[in-house]
Amino acid sequence: MDVREESREITAKALELYKNQKALEGEIDAAKIAVENPPKPEMGDLGMPMFPFAKTFRAAPPMIAGEVAKIINSDPELSAKAKSIGEFLAVGPYVNVKLDKAGNASSILEKIESQGGDYGKLDESGHPFFEGRRVMVEYSSPNTNKPLHLGHMRNDALGESVSRILKKAGAEVFRTIIVNNRGIHICKSMLAYKLFHEAKGETPESLGIKGDHFVGQCYVEFDKYSKEHPEAVQQAEEMLVKWEQGDKEVRELWEKMNKWTLDGIKETYERTGMGFEKYYYESDTYLLGKEVIKDGLDKGVFHKAEDGSVRIDVTDVVGKGKDEESHEKVLLRKDGTSVYITQDLGTAIMRHKDWAFNQMVYVVASEQNYHFKILFHILKKLGFDWAEKLFHLSYGLVNLPNGRMKSREGTVVDADDLIDSLHKDALEAIKEKGREGEVGDADSVAEKVALAALHYYLLQISPAKDMIFNPAESLSFNGNTGPYLEYMGARIASILRKAKEEGVEAASAKDAAALLKADEEWDLLKKLGDYPATIQRAAENLDSSVVTAYLYDTAKLFSKFYQNCPILNLAAEDAKVKAARLTLAKATHSVLKDAMELVLVPYLDRM
User: Fold this and answer.
1) What is the pLDDT of residue 1?
2) What is the C-alpha separation between 192 and 200, in angstroms, rounded?
3) pLDDT tens, residue by residue, 175-233
4) Which residues in the chain land under pLDDT 50?
5) Cα separations in angstroms, 545 against 164, 549, 558, 590
6) Could you tell me if 412 and 380 are in contact, meaning their C-beta atoms sit under 8 angstroms apart?
7) Calpha distance 161→387 (Å, rounded)
8) What pTM, to 2 d.p., does this model score?
9) Are 185 and 143 in contact (CB under 8 A)?
10) Could you tell me which of 333, 212, 343, 231 has the C-alpha nearest to residue 284?
């Protein structure tokens, strides 16, 4: 249990004693006790507002805070526990805690050093926060008629980052992907290829472009062609029928173009650090679920409508329609053919058979909120206990400053082109500053800066919000950006290298804690101590922005510490202080590097 939890527990027990003294009814819910950071250091290090208990105690929050603080400091059992943490006092409507600096600093530094890569993963008892949890994460969901674009980049960054955060918290994680490789949109690209490229023998290889870009070009070509030739849409639909009938020629072209696209997309995944334990393909799964629906019909979970379609009443989930009538979802059309949700039902069940998860996270845009509400509802109705742990990580749209993107019109910004542009700008910045010699491989560093700029910008905003991606802002080396974090990591690495060259060694955690007394040192230490709670909160909320905010705060605090508390350029008589501050710098470097990996910001040793 960390100091926040211990302080919450002590305060909850004091509230319980206060309640008994006043002979009041009701339980004291410790979960209602928020633990905040006071606005001014002199007020304490932690603050717990008493507003939620005003109704229970029929008293003003300042009065409650005063009585609770008095009980904590007078009750033998509570006061003994409190003294091991620090000083509890009432400050207006808050019960605040001034932590014992030396004791807490020593504990934080010792944990960072002893736990190494596990720091942030373990609770106070030494067990991973998510021990025993098996989480399947589905993300990306590309279409094989176009390359990945900026919208996919937000999906990919969220899915991969959340997977890493869950793993950091101790969960066993299994990453999956569903490839949308069938349907009318695929046939449109295929038809355009036959119209404009097949006779000339053109392929991605012959044209010297990535396969996914070539197929995406075909999709745009179809859209332009169909505006002058409306019959093209019917031709594409006829091609889809032939595909479903297993037509040899159509299937061979489909397989060839699918491979072109997938090979290109996988190159982008490798470049951006995405990975999956298993690929699922819509061509293999689109018929799944029909037997599930028929079984549910036999059990009375579903019903057959007058027109012969199979349906389920979902009014409890989505509410009544505008006419106040019940809302029904079609699961099988009257001709017995499946709909999109039929496939998703079968795929979910198959996935659980493949890898028995106890939690499943779907990373899909907010446009599908309605779909997933119904999907989860149906799986629960079918009696699958794991359906209670299904979660839709819904995210908002991402666009560029010049407006919304449209695939068929060719206004989408391809992921590769965007990263190439960021890479080019980063490389130019390195050359303008004359840093080629210092950074080593300037091209490799520019690539890492580009990825940091992209991923951090996409993850720093809460997933549910729509956002505008501004390439110029993302590449800034100042402010709340990925490149700024890379710079801070490289800056600390430089300090550690210089210390090694000068023969300066870090102090032990205990010795360092006794000497780290400045406000800047204490503020940074407290933030490092918050890392486990940050990981737990980010994993529970499936929110990478919790980690990005932590990273930026930590980097700013280190900058302030370094500016006001010199490390290596101290006088000889300050050798112990130098060693203590080096210990703090080393601990900060370890935590920053670990957290950067969770939000897909590549670490740079030199910059």
Assistant:
1) 56
2) 13
3) 999 999 999 999 999 999 999 999 999 999 999 999 999 999 999 999 999 999 999 99
4) 405-410
5) 13, 6, 20, 20
6) no
7) 23
8) 0.91
9) yes
10) 343
User: What are the tens digits of pLDDT across the range 299-351?
Assistant: 999 999 999 999 999 998 888 777 677 889 999 999 888 899 999 999 999 99
Q: What is the pLDDT of residue 405?
A: 44
CA distance 75 to 15: 12
- Token pair 């309640």: residue: 19
Say whether 170 sits in a helix, a strand or coil: coil
CA distances, 497 to each of 290, 553, 559 (Å): 63, 24, 18
Q: What is the pLDDT of residue 318?
A: 85
For residue 179, give both structure tokens: 């490839």
User: If we measure between CA atoms, which residue out of 338, 350, 429, 342 comes closest to residue 384?
Assistant: 350
The residue among 83, 112, 92 whose CA lies nearest residue 7 is 83
In whole angstroms, give the CA distance from residue 427 to residue 529.
36
At 213, list the tokens.
């870009």
Q: What is the pLDDT of residue 412?
A: 67
CA of residue 321 relative to chain centroid, distance: 34
Residue position matching structure tokens 């106890």: 358
Confirm if 177 and 280 have CB atoms less than 8 A apart.
yes
CA distances from 168 to 120, 130, 270, 513 (A): 8, 9, 21, 27
Place of tokens 């990580």: 393
319 exposed, middle or buried (CB, 10 Å; 0-12, 13-18, 19+)?
A: exposed
